[in-house]
Amino acid sequence: MDNSLEQHAKPGVTSFDIFGMTCASCVARVEKALRAVPGVLDASVNLALERASVRGAAGSAAILEAVRKAGYEAVVTPEARHRTVAAPARGLPGWWPVAAAAILSAPLVLPMLAGWFGLGLALPGWLQWLLATPVQFWLGARFYRAGWKALRAGAGNMDLLVALGTSAAYGLSVYLLLAAGPHDAVHLYFESSAVVITLVLLGKWLEARARRQTVQAIGALESLRATEALVRRDGQDLRIDAGEVRAGDLLVVRPGARVAADGKVEEGRSHLDESLLTGESLPVARGPGERVTGGAVNGEGLLLVRVTAVGAATLLSRIIRQVEDAQAAKAPIQRLVDRVSAVFVPAVLVISALTFVGWWLASGDWQGALLNAVAVQVIACPCALGLATPTAIMVGTGAAARHGILIRDAEALETAHAVDSVVFDKTGTLTEGRPVVVAVEGEDAALVLALAAAVQQASEHPLARAVDALARERGIAPRPAEAAQALPGRGVQALVDGAAVWLGNARLAEELGAGFGTLQGSLQAAAARHEGEGRTVSWLLRERDNRPEVLGLLAFGDRVRGSAPAAVARLQAMGVRVSMLTGDNPGAARAVAAQVGIDSHAAGVLPGDKAEHVARAIAAGRTVAMVGDGINDAPALAAASVGIAMAGGTDVAMHTAGITLMRADPALVADAIAVSHHTYRKIRQNLGWAFAYNVVGIPLAAFGLLNPMLAGAAMAFSSVSVVANALLLRRWQPAPGTPSTSGASAPPSKGEHTMYELTVEGMSCGHCVGRVTETVQGIDAAARVEIDLPAKKVKIDSGADLEQIAAAIDEAGYPVTARAVA
C-alpha cells in the first residue's frame, strides 16, 4: 500500500467549514488563530473549499471560539455531507455584481470621457448620487465587511484601502452636493468611488473563477464513485446505495459497471479499466485472489468481489484527500499588491491625516485641507492596482488560448515562467493513450492477422479494435467466425473455417496445452523481446489434429506522439530538466523514454508516489511543472508548482491543473512556459506603472498641487496606461518553428483522429453502453469510445464527422444534448 496515501488516514484530524474568508490574508489570520489554540499541533486552511483541517487534541468548542474571535464563523464539517457540496459556493462572487456595478458606473464616467474630447456633458448631482450610492453601499458592502475584519485583527489589506478611499471620495461628494446652492455648478467625485469598486470587483470575480476550478477538480473525482452497488446477501442480489456497502460484503460486478469499493475477486475473471490507479491505457486482467479498485470499470466478465475497504479508506477517497491536502498546503503566491498593502494602507492614512492637519494649521481653511487630504486618498485608490493583474491575465490568456493554451489562474502565471523542471506522465501525454498493433510474428504474418481479426470482430475490447484497425489498413477482410465467445481474463475464441481459433494471453496457451511446432524458439524469443519493451503479447492458436497449435503472436503497444521528441528537445534547449513518471511497467517506460530522449524516468509509480516525486523535487529548490492527463496524475498536478493538463484527458486532471493544453500536443508545454513569462512580465510592468503613479501622485496631492478632480483624472489615466500596456500582449506568438495552433478547433481532415466529447442522455446500464459504442463504431470501426455512465459523457477518438456520429446516436434512441471537440 502506498505510504503517502496511508498517512492521510491518521486519526486526530478534524475538518471545519469556515465562513467569511475572502482572500489569502483571511487564510493567514484563521491559521494563526487556530495554531494558537492549546492542543493544536498543526492547522491548514483551504480557501477554495473554505475548509480548515486541524490536527491535534484540542476540543471543537475551543477551535470554533478561536475562529469567531478572529472575525469569522465556523462549523464542524458534517461527515455525511459530500466534501464539495454547498461550502465551496459560499464566498465566491458571481458575475452579476460586476455587471451591475459597470452599468451603474458607466453614466458617471461618460462626462469625464466627453471632456477629454472637448464635449460638454454633465449629469445632475442628484443623479450622480443616485447612481453611485448602490455601488458604494450595496455592491461594495463586501469591502467594508472585509476591511472591518482586517482592522479587528490589527492588519491592513486591499479591502480596507478600497473602503477608505472610496468612502472619502463619496463622502466629500455628498458634502459638496449638500453645501452647493440649487444653481451652483460643483465638481463631484462619485465617478471615482464607483469606478474603483467596479474594477476591484472585476478582479475579485476573476480570482473566484480560479477558485471554482479547484472545487470542480474535487467534484470530478467524486463523480467517479459508483452511485449504487449490487450486493449478494443471503443468496439474493440486492441493489443498494453505494454508501451502504460495508467491508465484508460480496459485490456482484456486472460487465460495464463501476466497482463500488476496494476489494478482492472471489469468483470470475474479467478485464478492468484501472487507469485511475496506474494510468495504463490497457485494461488489466483480474481473477480470483486479485485486488480491484473502487471506481474501476468492469469489462466483459461477471465478478464477485469481497469488499475490503469502503468510504474514506478506499484508494479513490485517499486520492481525493491528497488532492485537497496538496492544494491547501501549497501557499498561494501573494500578488505584489497584497504584499505591500500592510505598509501601503497605514502609510496612506498617515499621509492623508498629516495633509489635513498641516493644511488646516497653515491656512485655517478646513475645507481646503479636507480636499487635499481626500486628494491623497483618491490618488492612492487602487484603481490601476486592481486593474493591473486582471487585465494582463485576460489579454495574456486570450492570446494563449488562440494558440491552444488555457491559463486558468494568476498563480499559474506567476509560477510557470520560472519552471526549471518538467515531469511528464507517459500514457496519454507523451503517447497517444490507445493500444496499436506494433508487430505480428509468425510463419505467415498475414494469416495470423486475418485469423486474429476474424476471432475478435465481435469484441469491444481495445485490443480487438487495434487488430481491426491494422487489418483494415493492410486490406485484410476478416473471415466469417461462428460461436465467438469471450474467455474472461484470458482472451477470446471462435470457429473460423470450421476450426477452433483462440487469441489470448500466455495463461490461455498454457491451459490449452498448446504446441509450438518448429516455431517455438523464435516465437518465444520474440515474445520475450516484446515483453521486455513493455508491450502486451497475445498468442494466436488454431486447432490442428484435435490439438491447439500456436501460429504466431501479436504485440500491442502505445504509440509515441509525433511531436513528443521535438517537445522534449526544445525544453532541454531552454535549460529545463525533463523527466517521466508512469504507472506502466519498466519495459514500456524505458522504451518510450528512449524514443523521446528522456534520460530520467520511473515506472510502476502510484498516484501518491507521483506526488511524492514532485514534492521532493520542489523541496530540493526546483520549480516543477507536472504534465499529465489522467485521474492518477491529479495528486501530482495539485502538488506541483504548476500543473499542466492535456486536452482529451479526464476532467479531474484539467480542473486540478492551472494550465490546460487545448490540443493533446506536448510541444505546447514550452509555449505555455513562454506565454506565462510574457504575461507575468506585463503584470509586473502594470504594477510598476500603478505604484509609480501613487509614488509621484501622493506627494503632489499632499502639497496641494492636485485637487481631487485632477487626482481622479490621474487615477483614470493610470488605468488607461495599464490597460494599453496589457493589450500589447495580444501580439504574442509561439516561437518560430513550433506547431501553429490557430486551426486547433478546425474540423479534422479525412482520416485524422480527433477527440470528441458528447453529453448523451438515456444511458442507464451496460447494455446502453454497448449500444452507443456499437453505433459509433458502425460509422468508424477504428473509433475509440470511452463512456462515463454516471456523468453521461461519451468520449470518441475518431476520424469521422462529429455531426454524423451525433445523429447516429440520436437515431439509436440516446439524445445527444451537448457536443464539443475536446
Q: What would your notes on this structure say?
A:
There is one protein chain. The protein is an alpha+beta fold. It contains 28 helices and 30 strands. The protein is elongated. A hairpin with a 4-residue loop joins β28 and β29. The N terminus is likely disordered.
What is the fold's blueprint, element by element?
Elements: H1 3-6, E1 13-19, H2 24-35, E2 40-46, E3 51-56, H3 60-69, E4 73-76, H4 96-116, H5 125-139, H6 141-152, H7 158-179, H8 190-222, E5 228-233, E6 236-241, E7 250-253, E8 262-267, E9 270-273, H9 275-278, E10 284-286, E11 291-292, E12 297-298, E13 303-309, H10 315-329, H11 336-363, H12 366-380, H13 383-402, E14 405-407, H14 410-416, E15 421-425, H15 426-430, E16 431-442, H16 445-456, H17 462-473, E17 481-487, E18 491-496, E19 499-504, H18 506-512, H19 520-532, E20 536-544, E21 547-560, H20 564-573, E22 577-581, H21 586-596, E23 600-602, H22 607-619, E24 624-628, H23 634-639, E25 642-646, H24 651-656, E26 659-661, H25 668-702, H26 708-727, E27 754-760, H27 766-779, E28 784-788, E29 793-798, H28 802-811, E30 816-821
Parallel strand pairs: 15-22, 15-24, 22-23, 24-25, 25-26
Antiparallel strand pairs: 1-3, 1-4, 2-3, 5-6, 5-7, 7-13, 8-11, 8-13, 9-10, 9-12, 14-26, 16-21, 17-18, 18-19, 19-20, 20-21, 27-29, 27-30, 28-29
Helix pairs in contact: 4-5, 4-8, 5-7, 5-8, 6-7, 7-8, 7-12, 8-10, 8-13, 11-12, 11-25, 12-25, 12-26, 13-25, 13-26, 14-25, 16-17, 25-26, 27-28
